[in-house]
């Protein structure tokens, strides 16, 4: 799922999908929150997307699960997709009780907590995922979104940069960092570098091309 919001754009939920019986695989994440910006340019502060077909990497939790846990997890995914966040949280907590070493449920749990406005629990969930896998770029990207929503811009930048250091072609993290630098940190060089990196991965994204042109115009004055 790819979501790129404008000021009144779409909203998607990060969902982790079970790959096969006996393992959990985090396949896709997408979170968005509209951010207002003066015309003619409007940008999202939260962008994420598929990590298999578009970035070429898959993160898999190699944990053993039984049929009941898989069914519980599938149910949690459906609840999140339907924006039933409280029910989804309850379901994910049950999954975590059964497979406490899997990162995917913690990441989904963090997204769900974020959607209910409980940023402390969202942060704790992402940090637990990173304790289990310190080299998890998705967790760093999602944690960056939570920090940005809390106004912790330096922490958000550091988290995005960790995601990019692990997977330089993780272009959604690049875009998140570019937007953060542009809208919140007034760091033109950072914004332009990361917008351009995103553009190289997504050359058909006309909205991003407009943002780059706008930034170059502002930088020249």
Order of helices and strands: EEEHHHHHHHHH
Overall pLDDT: 78
Strand content: 5-15%
Largest sheet: 3 strands, antiparallel
Helix content: 55-70%
Low-confidence stretches: 1-45, 47-55
- State the helix count: 9
How many strand segments? 3
Strand order of the largest sheet: 1-2-3
What Rg, in angstroms, do the CA atoms define?
17 Å
Question: Structural class per helix/strand content?
Answer: mainly alpha
Give the helix/strand layout.
Blueprint lengths: L14 E6 L2 E6 L30 E3 L5 H15 L3 H14 L4 H13 L3 H14 L4 H13 L3 H14 L4 H15 L2 H14 L4 H14 L2
Antiparallel strand pairs: 1-2, 2-3
Task: Characterize the structure shown.
The protein has 221 residues and is mostly helical. The chain is built from nine helices and three strands. The chain has helices spanning 67-81, 85-98, 103-115, 119-132, 137-149, 153-166, 171-185, 188-201, 206-219; strands spanning 15-20, 23-28, 59-61. A three-stranded antiparallel beta sheet has the order 1-2-3. α5 runs antiparallel to α6 and α5 (137-149) runs parallel beside α7 (171-185). The longest helix has 15 residues, at 67-81. The protein starts with 14 loop residues before the first strand and ends with a helix. The model is unreliable at 1-45 and 47-55 (pLDDT under 50).
């Amino acid at each position: 799922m790819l979501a790129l919001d404008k000021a009144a754009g779409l909203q998607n939920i990060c969902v982790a999908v079970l790959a096969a019986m006996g393992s959990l695989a985090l396949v896709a994440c997408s979170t968005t929150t509209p951010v207002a910006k003066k015309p003619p340019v409007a940008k999202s502060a939260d962008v994420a997307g598929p990590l298999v077909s578009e970035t070429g990497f898959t993160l898999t939790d190699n944990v053993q699960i039984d049929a009941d846990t898989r069914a519980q997890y599938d149910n949690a995914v459906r609840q999140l997709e339907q924006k039933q966040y409280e029910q989804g949280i309850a379901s994910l907590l049950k999954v975590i009780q059964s497979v406490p070493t899997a990162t995917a449920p913690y990441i989904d749990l963090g997204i769900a907590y974020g959607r209910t406005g409980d940023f402390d629990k969202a942060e704790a969930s992402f940090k637990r995922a990173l304790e289990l896998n310190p080299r998890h770029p998705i967790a760093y990207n999602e944690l960056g979104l939570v920090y940005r929503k809390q106004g912790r811009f330096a922490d958000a930048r550091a988290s995005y940069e960790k995601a990019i250091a692990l997977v330089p072609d993780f272009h959604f993290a690049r875009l998140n960092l570019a937007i953060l630098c542009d809208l919140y940190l007034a760091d033109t060089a950072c914004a332009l570098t990361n917008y351009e990196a995103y553009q190289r991965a997504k050359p058909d994204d006309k909205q991003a091309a407009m943002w780059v042109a706008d930034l170059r115009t502002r930088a020249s004055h």
